[in-house]
Amino acid sequence: MDSALLPKGVKRCSFPQFSIGILIVGAVLLWGVYAMLLCWFKGLNQTGMNDSYGFALWIWADLAVIALGGGAFFTGLLKYIIGKDELKNIINFAVVIGFICYSSALLILAIDVGQPLRSWFIFWHVNVHSMLAEVAFCLSIYFSVLAIEFVPLLLENRKLDEVPFFHNLAHNMHEVMAVFAATGAFLSCFHQGSLGGVAGVLFGRPFAFREHLLVWPWTFFLFTWSAAAYGPCFTILLTKITEGITRKKLVKDNVVDLLAKISGWMIASYMVAKLIDTWYWATVTAPSRGLTFMQFYSDGNGLYTLWIIVAELVVGGILPALILTNKTLRANKSMLLLAVILACIGVCINRWVMVLQVMAHPVLPFEEWFAYMPSWQEVATTILPVAYGVILASLAYRYLPVFPQERELNPVNG
Amino acid sequence: MFPFSFEWAWDMAHYVFLGGMWYAIGIISAGLSYCIGKALLDTVAGKGHDHGGDHH
Question: What is the reported pTM?
């Protein structure tokens, strides 16, 4: 039915089979859209947020998808600026993932702002001293860069590519892609950093507050570094999931190995900086504000106790770094998969504690730990981007030449 | 965002922050304009009518 639109020389499932899959995920998407409309029409009283939790599940999801989507800017930087040409075989998929992650982040923000019709105020009436203003600017401009990086892939669709103007446009965009990639890396460094800066400048919240270099707290640099380090792990994880679903090898091992190795060393160097930061914060910064390290991990409900810092730093940081920097372990498919899963969980826990543990920890002597339970509307609107992402990634895989090595690795007989 | 917005001030913060923003937007716009313009010229010149489909 849609065979004329499929890339040449590759095999895809039948259109009815594909449609059924999309319809199932589409039902989840509609559930999220319903919750989103409730939030827009009835207001933020539909959420579990309260005076203690101005930032909650949505902001964690935002920070998490932006960190995981960091694979797009970092892979682009490696390919177009540093010259790791092998990565051309995975850059398309990294861009698709980045596009999904950043559009999801913007969608979540559009729900979170409460009055999306006034979201342009942050641009027009900008507060230049606000970390969040920097995030809004860099995020939206970087999203346009991702859209520009996505366009040539769209234009390579079999039918669109037959139009000479589209063919020439895609060709020209490929030629100057290094300019867009460099701009994207510049913007990413600042919005990833500013997201960390939001937490680090909170001097009234000793769990988050960090020392500064000029106007930038250490969290600024740690967030940028962690996004560059962990983002490629998400790209590898989704590549492996796509290979599992399609039962095909889509990217050669040397390409995955290179990205995994770079990611591993990035995580290792990030962990050194993160451990120094944690040690300095625990022994100098927090005590200078009258608090001990253990007071931050004494939640009576058991959620924010020592296990969470062990999960973030050891299980989700040191362990994947050890696996990914070791050639033998990295070559083992199960160990590689374990490492990228742990890395993705690790960076998500980091974003969780930097948003929600910050809010949960009491800041006055007579207060208890604050509890927060997201409403079903928040959960549904957080799952909404996942469903949207699955649909967009499926459409991209079906109709676009996302994986340049697919034909070579999976020759179609006849 | 613009000098005609009421809260605009001619100070260092505005120069750095909005200078960076307009610099990025300028590069993106110029790059995109170049691609579209060159694609138009190439199409008029007859390029792309017979191609192998490999852009990489």
Answer: 0.93
